[in-house]
Specification:
- The complex is a heterodimer of chains A (599) and B (587).
- Chain A contains 28 helices and 10 strands.
- Chain A has 599 residues and is an alpha/beta fold.
- A 5-stranded parallel beta sheet of chain A has the order 2-3-4-1-5, with helices on both faces. Chain A has a 3-stranded antiparallel beta sheet with strand order 6-10-9. In chain A, strands 7-8 form a two-stranded antiparallel ribbon.
- Chain B folds into 3 domains: 225 residues, 3-Layer(aba) Sandwich (Rossmann fold); 170 residues, no CATH class; 139 residues, Arc Repressor Mutant, subunit A.
- Classes of the chains: A alpha/beta (599), B alpha/beta (587).
- Chains A and B meet through helix 9, helix 12, helix 22, helix 25 and helix 26 of A and helix 2, helix 5, helix 7, strand 5 and helix 19 of B.
Chain lengths: 599, 587
């Protein structure tokens, strides 16, 4: 991990090495020899680590493209690229270096569209064969040919499907991932319950988005015979009563009969329907047992004809229920379930994100819990994250497409994922969150924005989508606030600077009025109009104030009280000074800018 | 606003709507949050339209069959209402009076099932809806035995069709107040129901502002609607599109002129809305507010045109009658020509460029007034429109002789009513304002009648003072009248009232020789029952706010002043009091 970071973060170092030995590649890694054979473009390759602006880079390319027309070099380089891609998948450390080498063709692909268009046009003119098997980014047709447009749609569809149910990525090395281990253990456990009738309990602990629920579903799906599955969620079942009713309902659904039947006196006769409105009078429907018998229901579970798996999502929330009686009963039943006593097995799988869940359990509950804790983890390396993105983006299209499409798309995705900015964006996202669902959301927007005119994922699209999906701006509307609202905000900033962090509407109104008066007192006129600020009636300002309060730009300091008139309620300004400054500058009104700068 | 009306022509929402449609038709994320800080209602109608279009079979390319429920969190303010509305909408079930207004209750073979008990029941209800929809579309009653199969698998239908339930909640920020316990399970609905369910929360607040704590809910897929105010033509287009809607509705409305929305005038209306936009856009960005203003101003704006047209028609009519009476014996052909002429004359036509400019110039000031009165809803729109109708013969007047805009109404209602109070109440109000605004310890300096008669009201330093050491670095002192009224005990009010009466009322009282000591008469005055009655009356009108609880007998009641500085100034002027001299914080 460390070497990798070093590699990415220090392009100048690499450059100095290369400058010292321009012609003799002494570097051990084989892919560096790519640099030397194509003598035609030494400038580009030497230049790329220099932090030059894209425009400048495009310019050099532009000037070089007439002298060296692309038909010869690109395929060669493309072959190298492919080889490199293979190397990359074998050796993670090489990835970044390879990616930096990639940069030259990519910058041409992404930054210098006008320069690149010319050779492409010629390629198109040559006919289909030109782009039939593109091997590098610059050989991709700039806009999609008409006959491939349906392919793009299909590809989008396939990607969306794979984003919904993320593909598993294959581990590159011998190290077995935590999730695989957990899966192994969990399915063994469930197998024991289903096949041998064991009573099992375990906890599945892992951070958000690390695939806990997926893992459980997968394990259940792979079971040889179909058990009864009861899914409970601590988010929906807030107390044991609800949870046990839910158990009864799901049991009745999956076994097709009501429980605690007539040998304990028939519930529908004994219980007054008013007392238990949940109870259905109709005989054909599911009859829930009376509340007093609900806990006894759990002990019935092992006597059912099929083994039972109970999944408790949000296990920590169940531990917060009164006396933990549900957990106690469930775990007690699981513990006392003996193999070979004619009962079927029961497995209790708790799923939670809280690491200290075991400590939440009472002693009597804890002693009945088996203590098995399986852990899942999020992707631990950036490269896996990128691989996940790659496998999602290159999801196979189910219907038959022209044969040139898959390689074309693969090249597009490869070049996208090797782009420097893309890696940078991924790195940022990855260091903020490892939740794979974030990646899904980001990629979803990227994919949804693909059009036949702009058919390939690009760094710009990724940046835009990351901005929306990762940490969306809290107040994107500041720069387009109406005049009264922005005036109120500026007045609030003025009060902030003078040491009053809280303000009332009256204060802001007074400040605004004063400012309008001073700005209009200047006897200067430009084109017949004063240069002062616009007046605004108190009521309009009050309306703007209320709007800002509902948009949470202003938040009340104290809870609202009955005795205070609404213009004297104290508020606080939420966006900071710099956000507002940026907004005021974006608006471009001189008066407002001047007023703001006085604060 | 009618959804079919706005959503069909909402420029500026195209990309978002198509994004949403494509998403819903392919593989939508289970939880979407749509955020539009400016025009949430417009967005709601766009979303409603997109979803409805998809449901009606417009799903292009997608294999999914979409069923949607669109509910408003303001209307569904309890969980039961919410569950019932969603299930009824998904099953396309209309409760009818005849069958006892039953909610949708599952397949007909299982009576008595209630899905609105709690969230679990709702989840089962969703699963039942799914089964019901599958069976209804397959036309093959799979569960002929009448046994409900429960857990419906997403791929159970024969054609591999996917049934997708879409639940849209408008004004979703209300969920946090009305049913906070529902928010987390709603966001996890797909995993709870094990169905293909997408929930869309539509709000003018970011999801972060009302998300449940502790990260209990997963992050949504964000869709940010681009701000409409950044594209002026789109806004004007949308405002203008209200014309067509009004053209359809004006028949039933008795308030507008029936001809005001005739199709001929649409170009004029679009110019009118452009003018309106240019005047109002600094203040108002919400399209619905702009439409509201336009609807209130348009009848007055178009009235001169309609008047002129009617006068013209009448004139023509008169001429025709005259001509007919002159030449009573006419050939048929000629009279038909005449009719043709008349028909053409009777048609409403677009006013000339010159007229348009004159109209716009005349009405520009009144649009500003409309912003000030109608945007804060100080006046009823129809009433305002009626009050601001132009004079009858506006277009016949020479440009210089056009009447100016009608004077704005005289401030808020409060100020006018207050000035009609009896004299005692006015004194009490001014005294209360002083008591609420001045610090109590300055009373002696401000009102005391000591030896140094001349200098008593001189304050030390008026300039912004340095903050005291312990006040947290507050630089300038904010005048109390901006911070809000301070509570004061009744005695203090009476004492200040006494001072005011002694200084400004003593001269006009009738002679009372029995009061020999200076101030004795005033003492008597302020202890009258009528003064206390006036205080209680003002308190009941909330012009004085009672700060202490009303049920304590022994404690002295405390009050706060409920009138603003402007009103107090006005009252003081009526009574001849120089209010600013008596205020500790000079204005």
């Amino acid at each position: 991990m460390d070497e990798k970071d070093e590699l990415t973060l220090s392009p100048p170092k690499k450059r100095s090495v290369r400058a010292a030995t321009p012609n003799s590649p002494r570097v051990v890694m084989e892919c560096v020899e790519i640099l030397t054979p194509s003598k035609t473009r030494p400038r580009i390759i030497v230049q790329h680590p220099i932090p030059a602006s894209p425009a400048a880079r495009a310019h050099t390319l532009d000037s070089s493209s007439p002298t060296c027309p692309p038909p010869k070099t690109p395929p060669k380089r493309g072959r190298h690229l492919q080889r490199k891609a293979k190397i990359v998948s074998d050796m993670p450390q090489v990835l970044v270096l390879a990616e930096t080498l990639q940069q030259a063709p990519e910058s041409e692909f992404n930054c210098s569209a006008p320069a690149a268009r010319q050779p492409k046009a010629s390629l198109r003119r040559k006919g289909k064969t030109a782009w039939k098997l593109p091997t590098s980014a610059e050989e991709l047709p700039h806009t999609l040919p008409v006959e491939l447009e349906p392919c793009l749609q299909l590809q989008k569809h396939a990607i969306m499907r794979s984003l919904r149910d993320l593909p598993d990525i294959v581990a590159q090395d011998d190290h077995v991932s935590a999730n695989a281990t957990a899966y192994e253990q969990l399915s063994n456990l469930l197998r024991g319950t289903v096949l041998r009738g064991e009573g099992n309990s375990c906890l599945l602990i892992g951070p958000r988005g690390s695939g806990k629920s997926r893992l459980v579903e997968k394990a259940i799906k792979s079971l040889p015979e179909k058990p009864i599955i009861i899914r409970l969620s601590g988010h929906a079942q807030h107390n044991d009563r609800l949870a046990i009713r839910e158990i009864a309902w799901q049991l009745a659904q999956q076994t097709g009969r009501s429980f605690l039947p007539s040998e304990s006196n028939s519930p529908s006769d004994v219980i007054d329907p008013d007392e238990n409105p949940f109870l259905d009078s109709s005989e054909t429907t599911i009859v829930l047992p009376p509340p007093a018998h609900l806990l006894a229901l759990i002990s019935v579970i092992p006597t059912l004809p099929r083994p039972t798996i109970i999944i408790l999502d949000g296990f920590d929330l169940f531990a917060a229920h009164a006396r933990q009686s549900l957990l106690y009963c469930l775990l007690d039943t699981a513990q006392s379930c003996r193999v070979g006593s004619g009962t079927k097995g029961i497995a209790i799988v708790g799923v939670t994100t809280r690491v200290d869940t075991i400590n939440l359990l009472e002693k009597r509950v804890k002693s009945r819990f088996s203590g098995r804790m399986l852990r899942t983890s999020c992707l631990s390396e950036l490269q896996q994250w990128v691989e996940l993105a790659r496998s999602a983006l290159t999801a196979p299209v189910s219907e038959d497409v022209p044969e040139e499409w898959p390689p074309l798309w693969r090249v597009a995705v490869d070049s996208f994922l090797q782009h420097e900015k893309v890696i940078e964006e991924f790195k940022e996202s990855f260091s903020l969150t490892r939740d794979a669902r974030t990646l899904c959301r980001i990629l979803t927007t990227v994919v949804m924005n693909l059009t036949p005119a702009l058919p390939y994922p690009s760094a710009e699209k990724l940046a835009a989508s990351t901005g929306i999906q990762r940490c969306p701006a809290r107040f994107p509307f500041l720069a387009s606030l109406p005049y009264p609202a922005i005036c109120l905000c500026i007045a609030a900033v003025h009060y902030q600077t003078s040491g009053h962090n809280t303000f009332t509407f009256e204060m802001l109104h007074e400040a605004f009025r004063d400012q309008v008066r001073t700005s209009q007192s200047a006897p200067v006129q430009i084109e017949g109009g004063g240069i002062g600020m616009m007046r605004c009636s108190r009521e309009v300002l009050a309306g703007a104030f209320e709007r800002l309060a509902t948009q949470r730009v202003f938040t009340p300091v104290a809870a609202p009280s009955l005795g205070t008139a609404k213009e004297f309620v104290f508020y606080r300004l939420v966006p900071d000074r710099f956000e507002l400054k940026r907004a005021v500058e974006a608006m471009g009104q001189t008066n407002l800018k001047k007023w703001f700068s006085k604060a | 606003m009618d959804p079919s009306h706005t959503a069909l022509r909402t420029p500026g929402f195209g990309t978002s709507a198509s994004l949403l449609s494509t998403l819903l038709a392919s593989y939508p994320p289970p939880f979407i949050s749509i955020y539009d800080p400016e025009n949430p209602r417009l967005t709601a109608s766009v979303v409603r339209n997109a979803v409805t279009n998809l449901q009606e079979g417009g799903s292009s390319g997608g294999t999914a069959k979409i069923h949607s429920a669109i509910v408003n969190a303001v209307a569904c303010f309890t969980p039961r209402l919410f569950y019932d509305s969603v299930l009824n909408a998904l099953a396309e079930w209309e409760p009818s009076w005849e069958d006892g207004c039953n909610n949708w209750s599952g397949l007909s073979t299982m009576p008595g099932q209630r899905f609105n008990e709690n969230f679990d029941a709702f989840v089962h209800g969703l699963q039942a809806v799914k089964t019901y929809l599958e069976q209804a579309s397959n036309e093959t009653p799979k569960a002929a035995s009448g046994k409900w199969k429960g857990k419906a698998k997403a791929t159970s239908t024969n054609e591999g069709e996917v049934y997708r339930l879409v639940i849209v909640i408008e004004r979703a920020e209300r969920l946090k107040q009305s049913m906070p316990e529902l928010l987390v399970p709603l966001t996890r609905l797909a995993e709870l129901t094990q169905l293909d369910v997408t929930i869309i929360l539509l709000s003018d607040l970011r999801w972060e502002e009302f998300r449940p704590p502790l990260g209990a809910a997963p992050d949504p897929f964000y869709i940010d609607i681009p701000l409409l105010s950044k594209s002026v033509p789109d806004t004007i287009d949308i405002v203008t599109s209200a014309f067509d809607h009004a053209a359809g509705a004006s028949v039933s409305s008795s308030f507008t002129d029936p001809e005001a929305y005739s199709a001929v005038l649409r170009p004029l209306y679009s110019q009118f809305s452009a003018t309106l936009f240019s005047i109002c856009s600094p203040f108002i960005h919400n399209v619905h507010e702009l439409m509201y203003l336009a609807a209130a101003r348009w009848p007055g704006f178009i009235k001169p045109v309609l008047d002129a047209h009617r006068a013209y028609v009448q004139e023509m009519e008169r001429l025709r009658v005259d001509r007919q009476s002159h030449e009573a014996e006419d050939s048929g052909a000629e009279s038909r020509d005449d009719m043709q002429d008349h028909y053409e004359a009777g048609m409403l036509y677009l006013p000339s460029e010159d007229t348009r400019i004159r109209l716009i110039r005349h009405f520009t000031p009144s649009i500003t007034i409309a912003v000030e009165n109608l945007y804060p809803r100080l006046a009823h729109a129809a009433e305002w429109s009626r009050a601001n109708m132009p004079p009858a013969d506006l277009l016949t007047l020479a440009p210089g002789h056009m009447p100016g805009p009608s004077p704005p109404s005289a401030g808020p209602v409060n100020a006018r009513d207050v000035r009609a109070f009896p004299r005692t109440s006015k004194f009490v109000l001014v005294a209360a304002f002083l008591a609420s605004t001045n610090p109590a310890k300055t009373d002696l300096r401000m009102f005391g009648r000591g030896a140094s008669e001349r200098t008593r009201r001189v304050r030390r330093g008026v300039s912004p003072r340095k903050a005291k050491a312990g006040t947290g670095g507050a630089g300038i002192k904010i005048p109390q009248r901006l911070l809000g009224p301070l509570p004061f005990p009744l005695e203090r009010l009476l004492a200040i009232l006494g001072v005011l009466l002694e200084e400004h009322d003593a001269e006009v009282r009738p002679q009372a020789p029995e009061f020999a000591i200076p101030g004795e008469y005033t003492d008597m005055e302020i202890s009258r029952v009528s003064v206390h009655a006036a205080i209680m009356e003002l308190a009941s009108m909330r012009l004085l706010t009672r700060a202490s609880s009303a049920d304590k007998v022994d404690a002295t009641p405390t009050f706060k002043c409920g009138i603003s500085y402007d009103v107090a100034l006005q009252l003081a002027r009526d009574l001849g009091i120089l209010l600013n001299d008596l205020l500790w914080d000079s204005v």
